[in-house]
Amino acid sequence: MKLKIAVAAILLAISANAQTLENYLQIAAENNPGIRAKQTEFQAALQKLPQAKSLPDPTVNAAFFLSPMMLPMGNQLGSISAMQMFPWPGSLDAMENEAARMAEVKLQAVAVAQNELFFKVKSAWYPLFELEEQIRIQRENLRVLETDKELATVKFQQGQAPMVDAIRADIMMDEVKTEIAILEQKRKPLEIAFNQLLARDAASPVTISGSLPEPVVGAAARRDSLVGNNPMLAVFDKQIQVAKAEEKVADFMRKPMIGGGLQYMPLVKRKSHDVHIEPNTGKDMFMPMVSVTVPIWNKKYNAAVEERRLMQVMYADMKQDMQNELAAMYEMSFYEVEKMAQMVELLNLQMAKTQQAIDLMMAAYSNAGQDFDEILRLQQQLFRYRMEKVSAQTEYQLALVKLDYLTGK
After folding, report:
1. Residues 6+ apart with CB under 8 A from 353
2. Which pLDDT band, with edges at 50, 70 and 90, does 208 fall under?
3. Directed axis angle between helix 298-368 and helix 372-406, to 10°?
4. 50 vs 45, 47, 96, 193, 408, CA distance in Å?
5. Which residues contact 53 (CB under 8 A, 6 or more apart)?
6. How far apart are the two ends of the chain, measured CA to CA in Å?
7. Per CATH, is 89-256+298-406 categorized as 1.20.1600.10?
8. What ranges do the domains of the chain cover?
9. pTM of the predicted model as reported, rounded to 2 decimal places
10. Looking at residue 107, what is its pLDDT?
């Protein structure tokens, strides 16, 4: 009972520390400095909205005379004026809309960066999965060879087989031990690369749980039409919207701006009686002012509007070019998915037949002590099939990851 409790506690601790791929994707999204930079860039773009919808700053002018100017109402000491320009109605709304569309481009860039990050994390995850499976298979291979060596030794002691059979098994055991050691050494650089994508300490442990799913031929539906969901294509849509908003703003540049203001001129009575200009009241003067800009250079404004229209055409063509490229990449990835599924199906068949042959030869060896080297060869062939299957399963998953990336899933 105590042993069962201890084992249960260990398994519970392992499951608590185990991380799934979804957990690692969440960690990567939270820690990645590139995504944080894109998010900050979006927040900065939002700050342009209140700037865009604000009126131009008013202008204030002040002047004074070194010697007072004599006017009929008195001596003018100087003047001070204030002027506020008002864009044509609708201009500020158009500029605010332009800034909002630009912010949407920055927000879409976050989705693009996250899609690329998830693709990289998944692409680094499955090789780690493959490595763990390969180590497990080779350790199982080592145990089988140890059993073969024990059997060959017993047969030698019984005088039914030569000592060379045990030596052959021992040689293969040395090879497998070396392969296991090499695979173990491969784990560290893979884990470092994976942790770098998660933006955490390179020495952080990476836990692999579960097993690679069994591929099925035809299980991956042909979804090439869904490449339209790729976030990179949405960036072009957002840029087209920006160009349309800029075109509207450029069209408002043809409209005049109207300004209103007030000028104040302080006047004082003249004290000298040498010059008499009636009525010399000394009352201050206030003068309302109106200002209008006259946009007469139509060629400049027409060119600005046409520039934005051409930008829309450019972004539409760039989107189509990207969509064609993604569709071609999708077809190749879909082919890889189907190819690897068929390869796994073939390997399963070969492993079943090879295991059948091994069972028959092991039964014959137990009776006559012959063809031990052929048994070893078939066993190693079986384990090579198993290793190839793990690689094919990994390639299958990586191809599915590529499909998810292309479709923005």
Report:
1. none
2. confident
3. 160
4. 10, 6, 8, 43, 33
5. 92, 93, 95, 96
6. 48
7. yes
8. 89-256+298-406
9. 0.81
10. 94
